[in-house]
């Protein structure tokens, strides 16, 4: 699938051969248990520090799902960076923010707001191929002293195509009774019972679950050796 990337003066994260480099503190800017599990399974040692951010999207972003996904990932990571620095943090840190969207026919399917909304989404997805976008924004923080701070970030988005089986109303109702839908983009969890709804996945499964760790560690290999 196509990959897209934004870079803003991102410091290099790979300097493990230089013993004078300080340890890298890895911070996951998400309370998602799925993202925590994916990152832990990849061998990354990290702490969780999430922050509430405004996820309202302007009309121009609603019309451009990949850009919208990137902007939300940047907002989430950026908010945590501000909170960390407000605590007079010193050291080297990598703050990881992520956002996942389900997109069908150009429409963004976020987390359902009600049972009827979840049912609507699953009916729309039934028998169709949709895209799952997960954007990751990694902010590198260098703060040898509280007053001396340098920042840079790199944002990329991964895409995976997911095809649903043709679903009957009974199958949709049965899945909704399992209670997985309400905090998931697109109203389903591919890592749970929602796997039964899926006929095919073309691309990385971790993108659908919520954190493309393969691409993340390609971009920032030192994250796997972090001592946090």
TrEMBL record:
It is found in: Cytoplasm. The record marks 34, 100, 191 as: Important for substrate specificity. Its EC number is 3.6.1.9. Keywords: Cytoplasm, Hydrolase, Nucleotide metabolism. InterPro entries: ITPase-like_fam, Maf-like. The active site is at residue 99. Residues 1-19 have a biased composition (Polar residues). Pfam families: Maf. Nucleoside triphosphate pyrophosphatase that hydrolyzes dTTP and UTP. May have a dual role in cell division arrest and in preventing the incorporation of modified nucleotides into cellular nucleic acids. This is dTTP/UTP pyrophosphatase.
């Amino acid at each position: 699938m196509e990959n897209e990337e934004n870079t803003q003066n991102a410091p290099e994260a790979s300097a493990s051969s230089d013993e004078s480099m300080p340890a890298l503190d890895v911070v996951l800017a998400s309370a998602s248990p799925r993202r925590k599990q994916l990152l832990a399974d990849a061998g990354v040692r990290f702490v969780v520090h999430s922050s509430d951010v405004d996820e309202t999207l302007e009309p121009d972003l609603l019309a451009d799902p990949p850009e919208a996904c990137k902007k939300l990932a940047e907002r989430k990571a950026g908010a945590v960076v501000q909170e960390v620095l407000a605590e007079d943090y010193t050291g080297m840190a990598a703050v990881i923010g992520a956002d996942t969207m389900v997109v069908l026919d150009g429409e963004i399917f976020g987390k359902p707001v009600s049972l009827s909304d979840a049912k609507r989404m699953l009916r729309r997805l039934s028998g169709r191929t949709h895209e799952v976008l997960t954007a990751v924004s990694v902010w590198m923080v260098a703060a040898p002293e509280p007053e001396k701070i340098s920042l840079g970030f790199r944002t990329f988005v991964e895409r995976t195509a997911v095809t649903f089986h043709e679903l009957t109303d009974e199958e949709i109702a049965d899945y909704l009774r399992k209670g997985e839908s309400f905090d998931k983009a697109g109203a389903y969890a591919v890592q749970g019972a929602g796997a039964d709804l899926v006929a095919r996945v073309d691309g990385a499964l971790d993108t659908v679950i919520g954190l493309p760790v393969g691409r993340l560690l390609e971009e920032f290999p030192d994250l796997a050796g972090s001592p946090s």
